[in-house]
Amino acid sequence: MPTRPAKATAPTKAPAAAAPVERPRALRVAAAVLALEAVGMCVAAGFAAVATADGQSYQRASGVALTLIAIGTAVAFALFAIGLATARPWTRTPVVMTQLAIGIWGIYLLKDHRPDWGVPMLLVAACCLAALFTPASLRALNRPSARP
Questions:
Q1: Global pTM value
Q2: Per-residue pLDDT reduced to its tens digit, 100-138
Q3: In terms of Cα–Cα distance, which of 58, 15, 2 is closest to 146?
Q4: 70 and 44 in contact (C-beta within 8 Å)?
Q5: CA dist., res. 36 & res. 30, Å (int)
Q6: 56 — pLDDT class (breaks 50, 70, 90)
Q7: Which of 41, 42, 121, 125 is the most exposed place for a label (fewest CB within 10 A)?
């Protein structure tokens, strides 16, 4: 019985190395805005801590809790800023949701006649969202598709 020659297999292609992700300027602006919000939350935590230490909070436990919440929020904002600065795709959704919440709080502050707090919150949220939704930022944060 004649033997058949073995089929030559095509060499498998090695997966292409991931190209370095471009970090557009708008994405860096959004990261800077988030860093600014993190600093603002640190300032708020400081005010809450001082008010708690002076006995100005309703209860000491609630003052401590507000201080810890502000510190945790500042840490989260800082992590989001780092994620945006390094173009990590996971940051897009939490950053958008955070900025929408900040915008809603800014509207409530305007409604309650506090434009000194509401206007800056709205401006910061709008700047961050505008920078995040530029085409270059969206491209940088998109995950590569698994399809060939």
A1: 0.76
A2: 999 999 999 999 999 998 999 999 999 999 999 999 999
A3: 15
A4: yes
A5: 10
A6: confident
A7: 42
